[in-house]
Specification:
The protein is mainly alpha-helical. It is built from 9 helices and no strands. Helix 1 packs parallel to helix 3. It is globular and about 60 Å long.
Length: 193
Amino acid sequence: MEKDEIIRSATGYIKELFAGNSDGHDSAHTMRVYKNAMEIVKECPEADSFIVSLGALLHDADDHKLFNTENNANARKFMANAGLSGDVAEKVCSIINSVSFSKNRGKKPNSLEGMIVQDADRLDALGAIGIARTFAYGGKNGRSLDMSLQHFYDKLFLLKDEINTEAARKIAKRRHEYMEGFVKEYLEETGQE
């Protein structure tokens, strides 16, 4: 398969894999991460954009919150079916394993491609989309509004300072400020400030 065909196939695979998911870790999230990664990679010409594409599209294919798989089984299955080499599969799996905030707190991926995908995923946890995803996930998991708001302090407000690339830092700063305004307004409206 040609690279463009593999990317189209990965997009279809992700849409199928996440069908029916509505907690913020769905195919729409994956496609936003992919879009973010493609924007960032434009400013990092030395990065392998094909590896970045696959890493972004497959980054949640084996997320422990969603799937009971081991060793990136879903991602590896797709790449094997696409006829990709073991070297490509290992690079992509290394990226996948470096994305999760909870598992990689304070750690930088060991490749530029990994840094780009990690940034792309973290950007989707910021700004208006990040706010919407936080409350969608909280609602699905029985969290109150105030319990969901705690997630801003536990994770979201920390992301801006853990961004790897300059291209993503500019976006993260703006989205971070938007969230700060939202939380301030929320606290005022609920009489907590």
